[in-house]
Structures are given as structure tokens and as C-alpha cells.
Design goal:
Shape: globular
Radius of gyration: 14 Å
Number of domains: 1
Number of strands: 6
Number of helices: 5
Oligomer: single chain
CATH architecture: 3-Layer(aba) Sandwich
Strand order of the largest sheet: 1-6-5-2-4-3
CATH superfamily: Leucine Aminopeptidase, subunit E, domain 1
Largest sheet: 6 strands, mixed
Structural class: alpha/beta
Helix content: 25-40%
CATH topology: Leucine Aminopeptidase, subunit E, domain 1
Strand content: 15-25%
CATH class: Alpha Beta
Order of helices and strands: EEHHEEHEHEH
């Protein structure tokens, strides 16, 4: 699989599918979640209201509505509580389950934000290591390309360090 790191806005990225860093209600919020809901329009909220939420570590798939993607994969990442409440395992599950959903949908490309690193407070380097390792270990044929989107230059550098570390052992 090709793992690509780039700086950019998830609502304008070049991918077939995007992953939303959602909360358990799936009803929108701040950061990436709010930006995706705003750009997708009211149809996304209406569909999310029918889903009954989503537990941490799991994903739900919706239409993309006003966005130019095939679908949105909503992944609920863990809130950081000091690292002793299975946060790493739950974040791994988010990436793994999103990749499974993308594969089931026949995705050639999927873009991920830095799940749980914003308001949920997950340490950025630890989260980047989990994201990169999970994506590099993915053995299915699809998606062929994973884009890890950085929201600023610091997060881009963090992701690149994680990728270099994972590739060089």
C-alpha cells in the first residue's frame, strides 16, 4: 500500500473516500468533524441522526452529500485520559475499522485526518505512530493509497517522522 503524507484540508483533498474524526453522537462538532458537516450540507446531519451514534473505536459510513467523495467513513477516536484506558488500542481500532470499511467499499484511495489529536487530546506523536503503523501493516488490496492529512506544518513533520521510523525499523 502507498501511504502518502500531505498538508491540506480534508474537504478538498484528492481521494475517493474521506474519514471523519467524529464523536460518538455523529452529529457534528468542532475541528475536522465540524468542517466536514458544514461542507457536506444538511443531508449529512439528517443521515447521521438516523444512525443512533457510534461507539469509540468503531466506524459508520454515510453519503458525502455536497462533498465530491464517494462516501464519508466516520471514525470515533478515543478521548485521551492519560493512556491507561485503552486509548492506543481504540485508536488502532479506528484506523483498522476505517480501512476495513474502505476496502469493503472498493476504495482505491482514502484520506485520514489525525484522529483524536485535536479536542480529544491524544498525544500527536503517539497518534501519528499508530496511524502510520496501522496503514503500513494493512495487507488487503484496497485501498491502494492512504493519505494521512496534516493540519499544520508541525503535524506534517510528526507524521513524516513516524513514517520514516516505521519504514526504517
Amino acid at each position: 500500500m502507498n501511504v502518502e503524507i500531505t498538508f491540506g484540508d480534508i474537504v478538498t483533498c484528492d481521494a475517493e473516500f474521506i474519514v471523519n474524526a467524529a464523536n460518538e453522537t455523529l452529529l457534528g462538532g468542532g475541528g475536522v468533524d465540524g468542517a466536514i458537516h458544514d461542507a457536506a450540507g444538511p443531508g449529512l446531519l439528517a443521515e447521521c441522526q438516523t444512525l443512533g451514534g457510534c461507539p469509540t473505536g468503531e466506524v459508520r459510513v454515510t453519503g458525502a452529500y455536497d462533498l465530491p467523495f464517494n462516501a464519508i467513513i466516520h471514525a470515533v477516536g478515543p478521548i485521551w485520559r492519560g493512556g491507561k484506558h485503552m486509548e492506543a488500542e481504540l485508536l488502532y481500532a479506528c484506523y483498522q475499522n476505517a480501512l476495513k470499511a474502505a476496502s469493503a467499499l472498493g476504495a482505491e484511495s482514502v484520506a485520514f485526518p489525525a484522529i483524536s489529536t485535536g479536542a480529544f487530546g491524544f498525544p500527536e506523536q503517539h497518534a501519528a505512530d499508530i496511524a502510520v503503523r496501522t496503514c503500513l501493516a494493512w495487507s488487503e488490496n484496497q485501498p491502494r493509497k492512504v493519505i494521512l492529512l496534516a493540519f499544520d506544518t508541525q503535524s506534517e513533520e510528526t507524521l513524516r517522522r513516524s513514517l520514516e521510523k516505521a519504514r526504517n525499523g
